[in-house]
Structure formats: structure tokens, C-alpha cells
Write a structure and sequence with these properties.
With 397 residues, this protein is an alpha/beta fold. Helices cover 25% and strands 24% of the residues. It contains eleven helices and 21 strands. The chain binds flavin-adenine dinucleotide and iron/sulfur cluster (SF4) (2 copies).
Length: 397
């Protein structure tokens, strides 16, 4: 599958390709250059070569015997001895898919002190979990080698990963290593009887839901947006087999000089209660009223993109396709029309109250409690009611 070719006759030994290669895959031996197996065929070296000495070889499509590829592998993100919460969303979806295909769901953990992940995983339906012990920091090149080693051995038909920073960095590398397809940021996944994974995600600005398949190659890689899938609840202790794995001589070419931890902050994706401001809010000052409601309920203010574009709130408060996906217990949408792009980020909320003056507003199609009316009348009434309840000692559950 590695198919960059250097024509040493044409090469003028300027070494520009060596400097440009992000994978340090080009070596110089005397007056000849060779491309090593770390090459991902990104083509960067070809772009910079002044002598036209590098070309991409014919890509030979190797026939894959799809019958050999079975089961579902979940990439379990593990940092500072903690399993990332998206894992439980992935295991939930993987279990649903596996139920129809008679496949097993397995996991892979790469990181430091991976044995400590066992306690966090034993209450979930995983057949096997492969533990690859390495250093704490995520290093894409090393992780790709370990991950690929696991995939080579297990031959999963489907690989699910979180659409997190780590997942987004690792998934394309692994998919490239196997010369197979990857669909990023899926919002729904369906497994056909022949184990073909239908990967569904919004496309063209959310105007269509694209259904993508990987018909000829395996595995089928998909990343899933955080909070789009419902997390699986822990149940009894499962008889998961935890297998310590190692890859001899695996190393990273990256050196991390310093890691500065980001201060932990609860964002809108972690909130249980959200009050959302839409463009039905007339002035920036009026957001204070919605913020007051949010605080009284113990939640946070969020918004549509329309309000972010006005510069009234920071972009990390935006819900939707180009913002965050949220799954709160309660979401109160105030003056929000309910565009497809907005609803793509919040339709998983447990309870949706929508306040809108337009009885035909699309948000009412998904609202559990549609309130047709003026937010400038309803929100102050809600605030007053909550304050009275608090004063009277009524607990707001
Ligand atoms: C590629 C792309 C990505 C996008 N991503 C996102 C995204 O991530 N998130 C997002 O939100 N949008 C996104 N959008 C924009 C999206 O299409 C809509 O324009 C946006 O969601 C509309 O925001 P809104 O509901 O606040 O405003 P509007 O659609 O203008 O709706 C305002 C609503 O307020 C109601 N209203 C007015 N006055 C009152 C009142 N006094 N009381 C009660 N109701 C009142 C109106 O009836 C109306 O329904 C994206 C667009 C594109 C093209
Ligand atoms: S194709 Fe990319 S990875 Fe391969 S040698 Fe060239 S620059 Fe390096
Ligand atoms: S960039 Fe081209 S000419 Fe320069 S060393 Fe690499 S292959 Fe040779």
C-alpha cells in the first residue's frame, strides 16, 4: 500500500522532501533516497520536489476477503487513568449493531496504567479488551502502530472511535494504514445483514443526511460525534477478557517537551439544564433574563448560531452542526426557529420546552412542551414562578 516512488536519477539531492515529510519517512543513504514504511502517501514530498523526482505509484487495490473481518472494535480513549465518557456512547451503539449481526464488541485501550481501566469497563458488554501499555501522552504515530497491530490481529469489520481531538487525529492515520474508508462525525450507524456499515451524517450544510458505505475494503472506520449517541448504562459485571498486548520495538518519533493541562471547565455539552437564546431575543441586554432563568434552574445559557454571529455570546455556547452537540435533561429554547443545523445538535435532549410566537416554527416538531407565545412575557413569568417556589421551599426536581 505504500506507493511513493523516488526517481534517484532525477533527484538533485536538495533534501527538501526530507524536511517536508511529516512522518520522517525519507532517508538519505549516500546519494540515494529511500522511502521507509512510515510513509502515509500524503504526497507532501512530491509537492516540494523541484526536480519532479517523486511520484505516486499505481495504487494496487488488494482484494479483501470480507468474510475474514468480523466483530466490532471500540477505541477506548484513556487519559490520566480515566476512560473518556464518549466510550460508553460508542459501546452502546456498538452493542446495538452487534445484536443484529451476532458479532462481539471488543475494545482497545492505549495509554499508561491501562490495567486501571478494567474497573471502569467491567460493567459493560465487552467480549475482550486489548490493553496496550505505553506512556501517558498521546502520540499519533506510536498510537497508530499499536492500534494497527490490534486491528491486524483481530480483523474487526467495524471500528468505532470518538469524534474527539484524539479520535480525529488517530482515525485517518489508521484508516490510511489499512487503505480503507473512514466517515467522520457520524450521527447514526446502521449495520446491514452483510455487515456493511451504513454511516450516516449531515452533508451540504445539514441539508441532506448522507449515507456512506465502505463496500470493498475492511475495516469500516467511523468516528461519532460526542453526545450524539445515548450512553449505555452499566449493568452486571461481564466476563470481559482483558488481554495485555505489546508491540516490540514500537516507538514514537515525536518528543513532547511540555504538556500544559487545560483548566477543567464544564461546557454546555456537560450541562444537565440549558436555556437557549435564539434570534427571537431582540437585544444583547435581554440575554440577562435568560441567563437568570438558567442560573435559577442550576444550568447554563447556550445559543443558536444566529446569536453567536451577532457577537452576543461566545462561540463555545453554540449548539448545532457547526457548534456543540448537547444531551441535557432539560432544554428551554427561547425564540429559536428550529433549523436542521440547530436541531442536529440538540434533538437528544430528554425534555425540550420551546417558546416561540410562530405556531408553525419547526422547533415545535421536536418539542415535548411547545409553548406558543412571546418569550418576553413567558420567561419573566417563569423566573417569578421559580423564585416564588424557592421562597416557599418547593424543591424543583
Ligand atoms: C453550514 C451551516 C451550519 C450551521 N450551523 C448551525 C449551528 O451549528 N447552530 C445553529 O443554531 N445554526 C446553524 N446554522 C444556521 C441555521 O441555518 C439558522 O440560521 C439558525 O439556527 C437560526 O437561528 P435562530 O433559530 O436563532 O433564528 P431564526 O431562524 O431567525 O429564528 C428566530 C425565531 O424566534 C421567533 N421569535 C421572534 N420573536 C419572538 C419572541 N418575542 N418570542 C418568542 N419567539 C420569537 C421567531 O418566530 C423565529 O422562529 C448553520 C447554517 C449553515 C448554512
Ligand atoms: S508521501 Fe508524505 S509521508 Fe510519504 S514520504 Fe512523502 S511526505 Fe513523507
Ligand atoms: S526534493 Fe526531490 S530533488 Fe530534492 S532531495 Fe527530494 S527527491 Fe531529490
Amino acid at each position: 500500500m505504500r506507493n511513493m516512488i523516488i526517481n534517484n536519477e532525477k533527484c538533485i539531492l536538495c533534501e527538501k522532501c526530507i524536511e517536508s515529510c511529516p512522518f520522517f519517512a525519507i532517508q538519505k543513504n549516500g546519494d540515494r533516497l529511500t522511502i521507509g514504511e512510515d510513509c502515509s502517501a500524503c504526497g507532501q514530498c512530491r509537492e516540494v520536489c523541484p526536480a519532479g523526482a517523486i511520484k505516486m505509484g499505481e495504487s494496487k487495490k488488494e482484494a479483501v476477503n470480507k468474510e475474514e473481518w468480523k466483530h466490532i472494535l471500540v477505541y477506548i480513549e484513556y487519559r490520566h487513568e480515566k476512560v473518556h465518557p464518549i466510550t460508553y456512547q460508542l459501546i452502546g451503539k456498538a452493542s446495538e449493531l452487534a445484536a443484529s449481526s451476532d458479532d462481539d464488541v471488543c475494545g482497545i485501550v492505549i495509554g499508561k496504567n491501562t490495567a486501571l481501566a478494567k474497573n471502569q469497563l467491567k460493567h459493560y458488554p465487552l467480549k475482550k479488551v486489548f490493553l496496550y501499555e505505553t506512556e501517558e501522552h498521546f502520540k499519533a504515530d506510536l498510537y497508530e502502530k499499536l492500534f494497527s497491530n490490534c486491528i491486524d490481529k483481530m480483523k474487526p469489520s467495524v471500528v468505532l472511535m470518538g469524534g474527539t481531538a484524539e479520535g480525529r487525529s488517530l482515525a485517518p492515520r489508521a484508516a490510511t494504514a489499512f487503505r480503507t474508508g473512514l466517515t467522520a462525525d457520524c450521527t447514526e450507524l446502521i449495520l446491514r445483514d452483510n455487515r456493511e456499515l451504513v454511516q450516516i451524517r449531515p452533508a451540504f450544510g445539514g441539508n441532506i443526511m448522507a449515507q456512506i458505505v465502505t463496500p470493498d475494503t475492511r475495516p469500516q472506520f467511523a468516528t461519532v460525534r460526542y453526545n450524539v449517541m445515548k450512553p449505555i448504562e452499566p449493568d452486571c459485571e461481564h466476563e470481559t477478557e482483558f488481554i495485555a498486548e505489546a508491540v516490540e520495538g514500537a516507538y514514537s518519533k515525536l518528543t513532547i517537551l511540555e504538556a500544559v493541562p487545560r483548566p477543567e471547565r464544564k461546557g454546555i455539552a456537560q450541562q444537565e439544564i440549558l436555556v437557549v437564546a435564539g434570534k427571537g431575543v431582540k437585544k444583547k441586554e435581554d440575554l440577562a433574563m435568560l441567563e437568570e432563568l438558567a442560573v435559577l434552574l442550576g444550568g447554563e445559557l447556550a445559543s443558536t448560531r444566529g446569536v453567536v454571529e451577532k457577537g452576543w455570546v461566545a462561540s463555545d455556547k453554540q449548539i448545532g452542526l457547526s457548534g456543540q452537540t448537547v444531551r441535557p435533561k432539560l432544554l428551554i429554547a427561547c425564540g429559536v426557529s428550529g433549523s436542521v443545523q440547530f436541531m442536529a445538535g440538540m434533538s437528544g435532549a430528554d425534555n425540550i420546552i420551546a417558546i416561540n410566537t410562530d405556531a408553525d416554527a419547526k422547533i415545535f416538531h421536536i418539542a415535548h412542551y411547545p409553548v406558543c407565545g412571546d418569550l418576553y412575557e413567558i420567561v419573566p413569568e417563569l423566573i417569578k414562578g421559580i423564585k416564588h417556589s424557592v421562597r416557599d421551599g418547593i424543591h424543583l426536581a
